[in-house]
Amino acid sequence: MKSAGRPWICAKCGRQFANANQNHSCRPPVPIATHFEGRPAWMRTSFETIANKLGKSIRVDGVAKGIHFAARSTFAGITTTRTKMRVEFLLGRVVKSPRIFKVERLGPTRIAHHVELTDAGGADAELIAWLKASRDEHAS
User: Fold this and answer.
1) Residue 110: which H helix or E strand, with range?
2) Average model confidence (pLDDT) across the chain
3) Domain spans of the chain, in order of start
4) Is the pLDDT of residue 50 over 60?
5) Which contacts (CB < 8 Å, 24+ apart) does range 40-44 have?
6) Options 3.30.1460, 3.30.530, 3.90.1690, 3.40.1350; CATH of 28-137
7) What is the pLDDT of residues 70-113, one digit of tens each?
8) CA-CA distance, 42 to 39, in Å (whole number)?
9) Is the pTM higher than 0.90?
10) Which of 21, 38, 61, 92 could be disulfide-bonded to 68 (CB atoms 3.0-4.6 Å)?
């Protein structure tokens, strides 16, 4: 069921969603800093660069498996490993780039793209442009 322009907030976990009674894991939020503990400093710097470039109109949610970026709905996510930061974003079209190591068609207009960053230089203008396009598609 679509909500009339207002986000639905789960009474149990407090997370916001675009659709009323949206299926989710219903776990409490995880502090963003948790995902950077024991990780190289460049990862936190890259995350901050991405979040700042996407603007104040987005929501950033720390969840058990990573960090979600949402406009009206979730459009991107970040997970960290010891040496890499993985960035996933959804677009309605396939982006062809050697930087994208995996593409998953989740539906006719939901295509997930996966990029691995190995240093702070990876959070560059190209990645930000893809993320902004994804944000804009998920804002309405």
Assistant:
1) strand 110-117
2) 88
3) 28-137
4) yes
5) 40/83, 42/119, 42/120, 43/80, 43/85, 43/117
6) 3.30.1460
7) 888 889 999 999 999 999 999 999 999 999 999 999 988 899 99
8) 8
9) no
10) 61
